[in-house]
Amino acid sequence: MIKIMMLMLLMGLAPQAIATPTVDKEYQLIYEKAFYECPYRSPKDVDGFLLWKLVEIEKKFNPPKKLKGMLLAAACRESGYNPKAKGDYDKKGRPRAIGILQQWPWVARYYKIDRTEPLQAADAWMKHIVKQLKYVKKRCKYKTPYRIWRAAWVTAIRAPKKGGRCKEESLHFRLLMKWQKKIKKEKRGYESHLREMESKGEYVPGC
């Protein structure tokens, strides 16, 4: 826990994002990226507690470690975390996509949700991905949970396609990978900084 907090300070993170309801080591750093580095929402307008609620929903479905944060990336990319967002207008100017995850009317009917209620929307979004796992595993013949989940993700959010979408990846996925790449880079810098401090006798591990 101490090392995580030190890493946050080295990264220049503000107390607003650190003050979370509970600290989950697996999600803390990806949460920070979602809070500060969503290209579609200024950090000052982000509801940090909503992000943690989205994390709690995602955790119920236990995605592979490499895909932790998938729901945050999707919510950022689709609406900038805006539960009232509207998009994909039809010819009459009526929005078909509604809510934090820009879901279409069929999602509301099938999962019996209010698309403007972000927790309902998030739960339905995750359920729909999980619903594709069996199909994708058979169709794509993938063996690892990571590859199966990644293919199920893009299959769930795009229209059906002859031959499936086994080799595709979503824009949400690309954003998540961008965040994870930055986290890895920052971790290396943090570890290098600790080694330098240790060599100078300025840091004692475990203290």
Question: What does it look like?
Answer:
The chain is mainly α and 207 residues long. It has a single domain, classed as Lysozyme (Orthogonal Bundle). The chain has a two-stranded antiparallel ribbon. The termini are close together.
Keywords:
207 residues, mainly alpha, Lysozyme, two-stranded antiparallel sheet, 9 helices, 2 strands, 57% helix, 4% strand, globular, disordered N terminus
> What is the overall number of helices?
9
Mean of residue pLDDT?
87
Counted up, domains total 1
User: Main sheet: which strands, in order across?
Assistant: 1-2
The topology string of helices and strands comes to HHHHHEEHHHH
CATH class category name: Mainly Alpha
Corresponding CATH architecture: Orthogonal Bundle
Radius of gyration, taken over Cα atoms and rounded to an integer in Å = 19 Å
* Global shape: globular
Give the terminus-to-terminus CA distance.
Answer: 11 Å
Q: What portion of residues is helical? A: 55-70%
The tally of strands reads 2
Beta content: under 5%
Give a quick account of the main beta sheet: strands, pairing sense, barrel closure.
Answer: 2 strands, antiparallel
Low-confidence stretches: 1-16
Structural class: mainly alpha
Summarize the structure.
The chain has nine helices and two strands; from the N terminus they run H-H-H-H-H-E-E-H-H-H-H. The chain is mostly helical and 207 residues long.
